[in-house]
Amino acid sequence: MRSASVLLMGSAFETFRRIGPAAFVVKAILIAVVADVVLLGIILLRRTYRKWYFARRDAKVFEFRQNWDALISSEIPFETWRTKPFERRIIEDIVLDKLEAAGPDESARLLGFLRASGLIDKLIFEARQHLGWRRHRALVALGRTRSPESIPALSEALRDRALETRLAALRGLERTASPEAGQQILNWMSELGLRVPPLPLQSALIQCCAERPQILLAHLQHAEPTTREVLGRVLGEVSTPSLGIELLRFADDDLAELRAAAARALAHTNPSMALDVLDSLAQDPVWFVRLRAVVSLGQLRYPGAVPQLLRTVGDSHRLVRLRAAEALVDFRAERIPIFQSVVAAHDRYGLHAFLAALDNAGLVATLRVELEASPQVADNTRAILMEILRTGQLPVARVVASEIAELATSRP
Amino acid sequence: MIRFLEFANQALFYYYLACNFIYLTMLIVAFKGSASHQRRLQSVSLDSIKRSPLSPPISILTPAHNEQESISVAVQNLLDLDYPELEVIVVNDGSTDQTFQTLDERFVLRPIRAVYIQQVKTAAVKGMYRSDRDPRLLVLDKEAAGSKADAVNAGLNAATSPYVCVVDADSVLERDALMRIMIPVLTDPDRVVSAGGIVRVLNGAETRGGRVSRIRLPRKSIEVIQVVEYLRAFLIGREAWARANMLMIISGAFGVFRTDLVRAVGGYRAQAIGEDFDLVARLHRFLRDQQADYKIEFVPDPVCWTEVPSDIRSLGRQRARWQKGLLDVLWPNRDMLFRLRYGRIGVLALPYLWAFELLAPVIEVGGILTILAAACLNALSREFLVQFLFFGYAFATIISIGSVLQEEMTYKRYNEWRDVARLLTHCFFEHFPYRQINMLWRLQGLWQYLRGDREWKPLKRRGLDAANTDTKAPSAAPAS
After folding, report:
1. B183: closest chain A residue by CA
2. pLDDT mean across residues, chain B
3. Does pTM surpass 0.90?
4. pLDDT, average across residues A106-122
5. 10 Å Cβ neighbour count for B389?
6. Phi-psi bin for B167: left (phi > 0), alpha (psi -120 to 50), beta?
7. Does this complex have an ipTM over 0.85?
8. Are B3 and B95 contained in the same domain?
9. Is the domain of B96 the same as that of B161?
10. Is the dihedral of CA A266, A268, A273, A278 positive or negative?
11. Option in A22, A318, A362 nearest B384 (CB)
């Protein structure tokens, strides 16, 4: 064993000796020193160049800003700068920056300038013809114009092989925030399925479908399950009362995400129509459907929703309880009867959630004052409620069973 | 004996060579990664993140132990961060000074009975308080357990958001840092489970109202060298590891995690010396065990500014502690080494950490000793020694200058010529004698750990508006 290790070590020494690092090291030192010098040189040259470049650019920006009105009204002919890439890029940047903050009139004026000067055509050309990061850059700029004519070029880029380019196109379409862009995205999804992560897609669709959420419904019917989930979430965000009865059919959909979306969307509809559906969704086996239903019940701000909320404040899921309690706390006019009902349910989780929501809203002291002043609450009931409010504990069941029963009879 | 010394010296040479080649590869990967990141950012509008109903809520967890000097400014900064849905949970970790009273005075706290389920075990929470000034602020008053991890775990139990962001109370986040760190999460929420931002050196910068108002290099060389180290560790090391989805550290000073996953792995390990590194290692293990398709990202532009030690003694203690933390994580996870089940983490990342981070001080100090022994025995080729030293120095300097170049080409926080010149000058000092001293500290850390000394001694600091200061004990270990 020992002799084997000696042999092995011996051969390793021989190998090292044969390779002999010395000659190699001399070359390596030279290369390393040259690399050091090159890196230092790059840093120094780059800084010098950037100093010169930005001084020149700042001067040009100043000049253009001084003559801005003349520039965009074509008093200064477009030809004087359009053929000079350096100047053209500066003007493009200034216009796009201004578009971000412009109101409708100014936007129209700037867009008119982009069209008249041919800048938008140039961007469309670049978005269609270039590849890689150059295409990416053109798509970003095109999206920032928010112009309708940019939509076809952006839609074409959704079919690019590179994910980054597809995302840039999607975000560009999102910026246009137009139903036409939304339609293009939906068509693309129908054609190719999900080719980008869901969140950017949902974000784009929310922007584009906000004005006309109906365009989602047709696609929802025929979409694949994964796509339906994505669209369902979007529907939940953009739905308006105008969708009305259309939403109800999703309330018993097989997909939990779609049921949650229906629940979310129903917050924006007529309470009398939404209440029964939300009540049934608030008993859904999937917790996040119940959560959405409870949040929507709260958002309805409809006193008729209180019994449903009182039931869900004792839900098995912590977040559902919390949201139900928060919704209940928002019914300020009925706070005392609601508190009585929460106590009467004799569910310590429900009570805890309600008190936490009261605490978070800073309303414990207010409720205490209201209780003291309320003529409708009997003295012994008031004492129990005040004690519960103080301690956060339910009274021992045996001792106060009768009081609890009394509270139950006075539930709203 | 002589043969052994020759072998050891040559082995040391190849070790250096391998180490520097790995760094060179990382430099190239990082250059490419940063360029892609910057281009990708062009299409992302921070404003749309701010307005989006899809931006997930975040709970910021800030442990505070005896932070009376800076706590109110720090918390106000966190509340002022640009993000659509935010909750700030400050955990007063048994402070013996006026930390809680300062918070109460500034934010008007009232006790609440919020739901607190101890999913992760911690020391007792004495009370929960919400601010009347800003209801997004929740303060947990808990008994001290002697570790930051325990305090973060208490915050984790109280968090109600799907993502938690851990921020040190004495660090300064840039206003848009949260939105920036969430970009990879928002782009691919199913896969990205965690993201870390860059930690930069606050020393030397001018701060006003707890915000960085002017960025300058620190005055002391020891601090400037740390700036170079941080640049190299974050802009090159973490960028490169993250590109290969092998990031093993998310700085404890600033990182975002999926709440359910952190809870699933049992939160931070309270006894861990490097709790941030430990958490990421356990996340990797957990997710690999589940065969999940996941990513842990590094985002180089959301900046967290933090103080670094400004004297040798504190720096030495900090580095020893980091080394202890490294061993404290690598040793319990040794079963992951070379196991195909753990993919590239087991086959590449962990072996790298063992060979080039954990054992580096042993090998380098051992190497120096063998060189000295060989010299004493007249067995040392003087030519070889000179060449070796020159080569090691010149090669290592490439990496340091490369990290300054990376900074110059991307984020360019140090604008003045003077600062850049000083940074570059310190790239040459860093490898001699600082590197050798650092190795001794790290060796000391290993020795302390093996001896059973795992205690963490908090270091003195002066607070946010006095950055050119003593020091803190950041767990923002810039190990690559």
Report:
1. A200
2. 89
3. no
4. 94
5. 14
6. beta
7. no
8. no
9. yes
10. positive
11. A22
